[in-house]
């Protein structure tokens, strides 16, 4: 498929992959499905889960460039037009798009997991390529589109101590040695001993004592007792999704956080986390490296996870990743994590603004219209791209363009790499 040479000098529309994993939201309750309806090839099934929209070049769900009803893989288009990456990004990432941009719609909890550092990812891939098929690291960021629930990072140490002291079922599972360690310790090693003991406990022991706790909380709830000291509602929900799973006990170790729209988490290497419910934007290094240990039917690698984790304790407030206003654009909030692979801009254009100028960046970007509408006119090809809810575009490096807005509020998320 031969695209005109000048098509690589301007914005192009993308056709993006929709993933339908079992944990996704059903039908049009899913933001993914709502956005995917923009694509002419998307056929909604009301009873089907829609979990992820992938925007990028990853082989498990590659995007395609659309041009005059023709299409070609974005990866192939970039290979033939590597200048769209910009010189610095092209050199730093060997001519590849360094990030994967996603929309997630979560109805059922995802696994207790963490992502390895780049050096650890290479070692895991070398030692166990059948399990860890990707040698790249996978830092990622989640930005809430709706109320978004997650477990992320270890709670303050005193909170964990209190749960171990006041929940006998949890104490039984982790064992006397771990109970003593968490009661008397106040450091990294005490938490590592205790969490490792929990995750390595016999499944039969976990199932028995978890059921005892669930039964006790259920009786308390039916008697109108306060079950919040036990994170009771969350425990009952997770156990209904993954009965008897050790991951249900992780709520007493990890921060339970509900992000408001626009709030974010940055998941650096070795940070334990699990997405629980809601819709979010997600951006990550182009990788699929995950080490799992709970709330999943997939392979669990408990030893690797417990050895690699960051056992630092933080409050919820410390765990939420801050954005900052753009110094040059009043409509833009910037989420800039401490990795070179990606950053994300949230662009909120008010209805009073009828023309919005996208400034050129020295790296490639992908943008998705979450709400609102407008038009991009392409000068060299005399074509236009109508931006509606769900439209996705690829923006080559050093490309400026104007969005003619339709007099409604617009919200756009833009993933980019600038070095």
Description:
With 419 residues, the protein is α+β, with helices and mostly antiparallel strands. The strands form five sheets. It has a nine-stranded antiparallel sheet. Strands 2, 5, 8, 10, 11, 12, 13, 14 and 16 form a nine-stranded antiparallel sheet that branches. Strands 20-25-22-23 form a four-stranded antiparallel sheet, with no helix packed on it. The mean pLDDT is 94. α9 packs across α10. The chain contains twelve helices and 26 strands. 26% of the residues lie in helices and 30% in strands. It is elongated and about 70 Å long. The longest helix has 20 residues, at 203-222.
Structure summary:
With 419 residues, the chain is α+β, with helices and mostly antiparallel strands. 26% of the residues lie in helices and 30% in strands.
Which features characterize this protein?
single chain, 419 residues, alpha+beta, 9-stranded antiparallel beta sheet, 26 strands, 26% helix, 30% strand
Topology diagram in text:
Elements: E1 12-15, E2 17-19, E3 25-26, H1 31-36, E4 49-50, E5 52-55, E6 64-67, E7 70-73, H2 74-80, H3 87-92, E8 99-106, E9 112-114, H4 118-127, E10 140-144, E11 148-154, H5 157-166, H6 168-174, H7 176-184, H8 188-199, H9 203-222, H10 232-241, E12 254-259, E13 264-267, E14 273-285, E15 291-294, H11 302-308, H12 316-319, E16 320-321, E17 324-325, E18 332-335, E19 343-349, E20 355-358, E21 365-371, E22 374-378, E23 383-387, E24 392-395, E25 401-405, E26 410-416
